[in-house]
Amino acid sequence: MGMSKFKGVVLAVLFTVTLGGAVATGTTAHAATYTTVSTTNVTKAAYHKKSTAGAIYNKAHNRRIATMKGYPNTTWYVTQHATLKHANSKGIYYYVQNKAGSVKGWIWHGYLTKGKAPFGLKYSKNAIAMDYTTGKAVWSKSANTARPIASVSKLMTLYLVLQKVDGSSSKWNEVVDTSSKGLISMSQSSSCGGFLFKTGHKYTVKDLYDAALLDSSNNAAIALGQWVAGSNAKFIQQMNAQAKTWNLDKASFVSASGLENSDLKVFGYAYGSANANMVSAKDVALIARHLIQDYPRILTDGSVGSKTVDGQLTYNYNNLLKGRKYYQAALNVDGLKTGYTPLAGYCFVGTGQKTGKHRVITVVLHDENEFTETRSLMNQAYSYSSMSD
After folding, report:
1. Nearest of 269, 272, 266, 158 to residue 216 by alpha carbon
2. Structural domain boundaries of the chain?
3. How would you write the pLDDT of the chain (389 residues) with one tens digit per residue?
4. 1 by DSSP, 3-state: which?
5. CA-based angle 263:161:215, to the nearest 5?
6. Are 257 and 153 in contact (CB under 8 A)?
7. What does the alpha-carbon distance between residue 105 and residue 55 come to, in Å, rounded to a whole number?
8. Which are the catalytic amino acids?
9. 8-state DSSP, 119
């Protein structure tokens, strides 16, 4: 039997188990056909996958533990070498385990290459880590591809609101027209609302700003846009004009809130021919950078965990803030915006500033684990010397 066939004889797939957040496949052969010729302890060394080929087995090679494809960015630590025999062929195998020690076993040495695995995000389809000080990307993944961005679109909406307010307390206290039947109906929708527009209540610009930023209220964002520009259509035109001013060539808006037209239509707020706001991760990061530069209060406002507005609790779903599940003290996360629709997936724009480092802005789009991956991305960004003061 040639070496390529010797690498992994699999006869029957019987079960799958989940190990460390990735799927590992248990595979059992009819009989243990691999025998150990010799085993040697070696100095612990880091390796990573050479390609998506290969799998980790138990030493007898009658149970598959994990595939390389299932662990694309894992560093494997080798502590033993062994010569295994199958029929008339022999091969060198390495005993490996991940950092946590939750996945371990034997793999043919040719599937590995020496050194730690390069950083990567498993779930996010488009992502970037940007140095706020320089505006340069320090790490990216398909960051120039425009895609639906859900409620992170509100960063542009909030920028234009802050631009009109221009620090004026009287403008913050202006009452916004929330009488539209479409907006009232939207506010009552469990899937499309976020902040209830109650009959007879008057809401100020500041009320709706908090509702849009913290609670990600779609109806609040649309009402604010109409306050800024006079109509929903004029405001969306203003969003696109602002993007053009900033030379964001991968940004196109049809919605003040981030909802798609397929959802907005029933409320009378569909606009344009496209279904969704289409923006690249890089351009989202640049919008966030302009927002922080021109209106730094967004960091103070965006770090509030929750706030009662007109008797309603507005809850900030940024789970990297202090006291939340994914909080990491050293990262000092103080913003910025979550987003989700079934089309866009989970989206998140994060920002923070580690002591002695530049502020970082991160964007993950169409993610499945947005806070864990953002935390990993921030830590990776800070590993680069360019992020230091």
Report:
1. 158
2. 3-114, 126-387
3. 344 334 443 333 333 333 333 344 444 443 457 999 999 999 999 999 998 899 999 998 889 999 998 888 888 999 999 999 988 899 999 999 998 899 999 999 999 999 887 778 888 999 999 999 999 999 999 999 999 999 999 999 999 999 999 989 999 999 999 999 999 999 999 899 889 999 989 999 999 999 999 999 999 999 999 999 999 999 999 999 999 999 999 999 999 999 999 999 999 999 999 999 999 999 999 999 999 999 999 999 999 999 999 999 999 999 999 999 999 999 999 999 999 999 999 999 999 999 999 999 999 999 999 999 999 999 999 998 899 87
4. coil
5. 50
6. yes
7. 9
8. 151, 154, 216
9. P
- Is beta strand 76-86 parallel, antiparallel or unpaired with respect to 89-97? antiparallel
Q: Are 346 and 370 spatial neighbours (Cβ–Cβ below 8 Å)?
A: yes
Distance CA 157, CA 155 (A): 5
Amino acid (one-letter) located at 292: I
- CATH topology (fold) of 126-387: Beta-lactamase (3.40.710)
- Reported pTM: 0.80
Strand order in the sheet with 76-86: 64-67, 55-57, 104-108, 89-97, 76-86, 34-49, 112-114
Burial class (CB in 10 A: 0-12, 13-18, 19+), 321: buried
What is the residue-wise DSSP string for 346-385?
A: EEEEEEE--TTB--EEEEEEEESSHHHHHHHHHHHHTTSG
Helix axes 218-229, 154-165, angle to 10 degrees: 40
Instruction: Retrieve residue 113's tokens.
Output: 């290459």
**If you write DSSP's letter for every residue of 128-196 in order, what string do you get?**
EEEETTT--EEEEESTT--EE-GGGGHHHHHHHHHHHHTT-HHHHTPEE----HHHHHHHT-TTT-SS-
Distance from C-alpha of 261 to C-alpha of 254, rounded to nearest angstrom: 8
Q: Which string of DSSP letters, residue by residue, matches 270-297? A: --SSSSS-EE-HHHHHHHHHHHHHH-TH
